[in-house]
Amino acid sequence: MNEFVAPEIDWLALAPLIVVLGAGVVGVLLEAFVPARARRVTQIVLTLAALAGGLAFVVYLWPQIVAQPVQVVGGSVTLTPFALGAQGIIALLAFLGVLVVADRTATGQDAFAPTASAVPGTSYEDLARKSGLEQTEIYPLLLFAAGGMMLFASTDDLIVMFIALEVLSLPLYVLCATARRRRLLSQEAAAKYFLLGAFASALFIFGVALIYGFAGTVRLLEIAQRVQQGALPLEGMSALLVAGVLLVTVGLLFKVGAVPFHAWTPDVYTGAPTPITGFMAACTKAAAVAALVEVLYRISIGVQAVDPEIMRQLQVVVVVVAVLTMAVGTVIGSVQTDVKRLLAYSSIAHAGFLLVGIAGFGPQVQSSTLFYLLAYGIATIGAFAVVTLVRERRVTPGAQEDNGPVADDGVVLGEATEIAQWAGLGRKAPWLTAAFALFLLSMAGIPLTAGFIAKFGAFAGATSGGLWWLAVLGVLASVVAVAFYLRLLVVMVFQPGTVEPDSQAEPVETGVPTSSTGDGGEGPTEGGGVATATKVQVTAAQRVVVTVVRSRGPAAVAIAVCAIATVILGVFPSLVLNLVAEASKFVP
Amino acid sequence: MFPWLTALIAWPLVGAAVVALGALGRSRTGSANAGTGLARPIALVFSLVEVVLLVGAFLAFDTGAAAEHQLAETHAWIPQIGTSYAVAVDGVGLLLVALAVVLVPLVLLAAWNEQGRDEVRLRRFVGLVLLLQAFMVAVFAARDVFLFYVLFEAMLIPAYFLIGGFGQGAGRRQAAVKFLMFSLGGGLIMLAAVIALYFLAVGAGVDPSKAFLLDELVGVNLGTIAERLMFVGFFVAFAIKAPMVPVHSWLPDVAGNATPGTSTLLICVLDKVGTFGMLTLCLPLFPEASRWAAPFVIALAVISVLYGAIMAIMQTDLLRLVGWTSVSHFGFIILGIFTFTPLGTAGSSFMMLNHGLATGALFLVAGFLVARHPERSQRITDYRGLRSVTPVLAGTFLVAGLATLSLPGLATFVSEIMVLIGAFGGAPAGSAAWTVAAIPGVVLAAIYVLLTYQKIFTGAPAEGLEVLPDLKARERIVAAPLVVGLLVLGLVPGLALTYVDAPAQQSATTIAVDEPADAAAQMGSDK
């Protein structure tokens, strides 16, 4: 019998993960022990503190890891500068994302259902809503997801990677189903995400099995070594390796949202509560892309040395996926009429641009990818945060048709996500519009925003890898992408708020000035701090207008931070580029 | 040494920031947000101080060495990707900077009452104008390809908002989008070329931390195919901007829908980036490819000259007409550049300045005219017989129009004749023939200018237009500097030619095409 030997563990290196996941566990306990009224605040503070702590540990560890990467727990966690950088970016983006999640806005409601488990439309759901229940479990779930993502990006072990994949996915499936409004859509999104996600996980683990069968190990570095040394149990069956790597890649590409594994993205992004969409779009993508880079690059070393042909095939796969992803993301994105769907396709397109950078297999890919993820992430979280504040408001003439004292049936309804409804937003909420325009410009890759430097890095990566024509294709796709960001921008900034043609001869109400995102008088209704706006629909009984609700602080902070970071990263990117430049070190 | 160029770039930015404080605030129509009413005066003061700075820059500039890039400043910007904040101007760059600096106060003054009284709207407008000015000055001074590209794209954003947000025409949003899509499309193709240029230069042994600096890139051997591809990448972007047939179609829409002030800045200054880029980027960086493409470019340039003029004659919209005349004039400028003669190049450089003054005057005066119409109509046929009603306006319009058709005695004549003579002796095959083919453009210019003048100003006044106010003092102050400038430069062209001759000589040497004619002597005779 072998004696059990406790592994030597460098706890400090694990600290970012432990803080975040540990706080998740504590959060679950808080659910049980903290009284209901204090629960929400406690959870928010804990969540933010945990993510900030995780980020702080990343910063603390950075000099050490840059000097010397470490492997912890027998390689289950491998901290290279790239992995640590990815952890830091995920923690930062998650922090900003949680700020948006935590904002109840001036309506006093957050974006989540009182009881997500209630069947939509039942009396039980009504009861839960009337009694003012709150679903504070979302915060531990967010922490588990963030922790899983951080682990996902920093492991060398395919089995650990699979576990991390599940740890990050399962909470997200649940979170998708928790939208306060449009409950059925939200639950449908969750079911869709879960089913397809389970599929992708299965493919991933099947790929791992094939690789294990071929190489006799699930450690990426060992696989590369064994391939190079030729010490393989199944010599001459490199098809196993190719199939295995492809299946693993498919699993990862699913999470990345790359074509043809993107089908879930628009529906899930639309159905999920918007703050969760922002979190998911930014952080999941960061984690998945980081993991993809790790897998592809580590495997490629071994393969490159032994059989360049296989390497070439692998590259062809990435290139094809990149081209398809850009094409579908931009072309289909340009015909969307819903802001959330548009941003979903934008996220697909960005996956394509990221893959363009990766496909070059150049020397600087780790650095440019990290920068891209950061730039894209802050713009995405900021953009979705803005979406949470643009709402529909029901205006009932006479105001006595209010459905009782229930807060949820109040005047402010769900988000106004039709692009047409955003007309005239520039006049109602200039600062918010300016921030959103900035995020769009950054996503479009206009110079002097973060997105430009990011895109430049990605295209330069492809060019340095000899794929200059792919960079040209990327440039062309960018033009199409610009077109659809521009469409939204035009609606917001230039179009006056117009009345829809089906209005029933009601007097036109345009832009009654009451209040906006700033201070100022409350509107004439009990919505509280509601800015009005222009009418978009008129029915005999009531009208729905588009309104911008005031943030209660956190989301505004998140938007401001994202906007400032977007500009700083665009104009003075040197500092951050210096940091991410370290990430290309120690690429084996 | 005082950093004149950085000061010229930074000062409008400061102005824009000052004006913008609160510009994003809510626009409460009609309520107490008239604010301090200081947005316009503040912006005007900033733009006038900018003129003072310009004078300083001119004094610091050594005209004896106009071919050298002077007032240089170089600082590392993003060392990781080898780009620097490098600014410097030669004579041509300085003149174009001057154009950007001089036109802005005039445009602000011309648009004084145009945007209503809403303080928030005014702040946005003048803030965008100042922002655009900073970018325009910077782009003419940039000596780093990456910096140039960044500014080239970034200045589209204020321009886009100026067209789409403050225009007069109903189609202004579509025009703004069209403008941006054309420009960004070209710009992104250029981006691909910029990236490729960097990697090829590094491959050819240029220090990676300086591989975007123009001074380092000139003379690098890139290989024939790569050089040609990159030339095309740059050239398409510049041709769109210039605007050149067949990628000109955004321009008339913009001219017809933007405010005259915006059109002035856009077409008279911003679009010069296209021809300026051809002259200072395409030719020195890709000399072989430039020679290779020259016959084709010349052909397109001449087609632009003729097509633009014919389309101008057919226009019914006054501002669109002015836009089309620019297509024609930009054709002349490109013709001069791509015949690689010192005379033609110097003529083109001079013409960039003159076109800015002449077309600027025409746009602004046309704007004054339109503003007087009760319905702000831009249709030429809605006007008649205004010479007796508004004599000063008619006279100013005529001078601007005559400058547009290059009447001898005005600056535009000098530059146009230089271009034509230079182009006639140009090196590329068929230069002479194409130049002859371009000459009808001069005649057509006379037709579109005089015909328009005749329709608008002669005859009996149209109904409803019998009593219109003539040019006010403010408007005269706007028109005067432009008219005076055209006259002075027409009588003493040497004032400007000292700045463009030497760079033109050097450009022609760089392109290394034998030039038999003694250009200097010819220029002497022109003076």
Question: Could you provide a short overview of the structure?
Answer:
The complex is a heterodimer of chains A (588) and B (527). With 588 residues, chain A is mostly helical.
What do these coordinates show?
The complex is a heterodimer of chains A (588) and B (527). Chain A has 588 residues and is mainly α. Chain A has 20 helices and seven strands. In chain A, strands 3, 4, 5, 6 and 7 form a five-stranded antiparallel sheet that branches. Chain B has a domain at 286-522. Helix content of chain B is 71%, strand content 3%. Chain B is built from 23 helices and two strands. Chain B has helices spanning 4-20, 39-60, 91-110, 119-141, 145-154, 156-166, 172-203, 214-217, 224-241, 250-257, 260-270, 272-285, 287-314, 318-337, 342-372, 386-389, 391-404, 411-424, 431-438, 440-457, 473-491, 494-511, 519-526; strands spanning 70-78, 83-89. The model of chain B is unreliable at 25-34 and 513-527 (pLDDT under 50). Chains A and B meet through helix 16, helix 17, helix 18 and helix 20 of A and helix 5, helix 6 and helix 7 of B.
Question: What descriptive keywords fit this protein?
Answer:
heterodimer, A: 588 residues, mainly alpha, 5-stranded antiparallel β-sheet, two-stranded antiparallel sheet, 20 helices, 7 strands, B: mainly alpha, 23 helices, 2 strands, 3% strand
Largest sheet of chain A: 5 strands, antiparallel
The biggest chain-chain interface is:
A-B, 40 and 38 residues
Task: Look at the structure and give the mean pLDDT of chain B.
Answer: 85
The helix/strand class of chain A is mainly alpha
